[in-house]
Amino acid sequence: MSSELVGYVKFPHVQQVFRLERERQNVKSGKIERETIYGITSAPEQRATPERLLEWARGHWAIENKEHYVRDMTFDEDRSQVRKRKRAWILAAMRNLALNLLRLAGATNIAEATRACAGRVERSLRLIGLPVSA
User: Fold this and answer.
1) Residues 20 and 39: beta-carbon distance below 8 Å
2) Residue ranges per domain, the chain?
3) Whether 12 contacts 21, CB under 8 Å
4) First to last CA, the chain
5) pLDDT for position 2
6) Could you tell me whether strands 16-25 and 32-41 are parallel, antiparallel, or unpaired per DSSP bridges?
7) What's the per-residue H, E or C state across the chain?
8) What is the pLDDT of residues 78-87, one digit of tens each?
């Protein structure tokens, strides 16, 4: 972490630059993987201590794992061919709606909850609070 580059970096509002070294073990192979990333922040040193920057980086991965990973694994979003106009935005909004409804209903395993609702209109309607006729 350093604020010494302020004024030299051609990026608006830079207060600090930092380097983060990551190390993780691949569960399947056991191999240790190392990665170094560099970042910039507009937060001054008083607000963004090294500990705080690390907390923010970890928080980013918590979001990545909770949202994007689930969206890709459950809805196969990365392979979607829909990219034009508003269609991609609408499909993303529908996926977000489905994820949030399932989470509000108490689902902890989104893939399992999605399978439980597939083809079961009554169950899906109950999730959004609509009455289901007997």
Assistant:
1) yes
2) 1-47, 49-134
3) no
4) 63
5) 67
6) antiparallel
7) CECCCCCCCCCCCCCEEEEEEEEEECCCCCCEEEEEEEEEECCCCCCCCHHHHHHHHHHHHHHHHHHHHHHHHHHCHHHCCCCCCCHHHHHHHHHHHHHHHHHHCCCCCHHHHHHHHCCCHHHHHHHCCCCCCC
8) 777 877 778 8
Token pair belonging to 68: 């994007």
Distance CA 39, CA 80 (A): 30
Rounded Cα distance between 6 and 19, Å, is 15
Report d(CA 113, CA 133) in Å as an integer.
22
Structure token pair of residue 126: 């109950």
Beta-carbon count within 10 A of 100 CB: 10
Contact of 31 with 10, CB cutoff 8 Å? no
- For tokens 């604020």, the residue is 3
Q: What is the pTM of this model?
A: 0.50
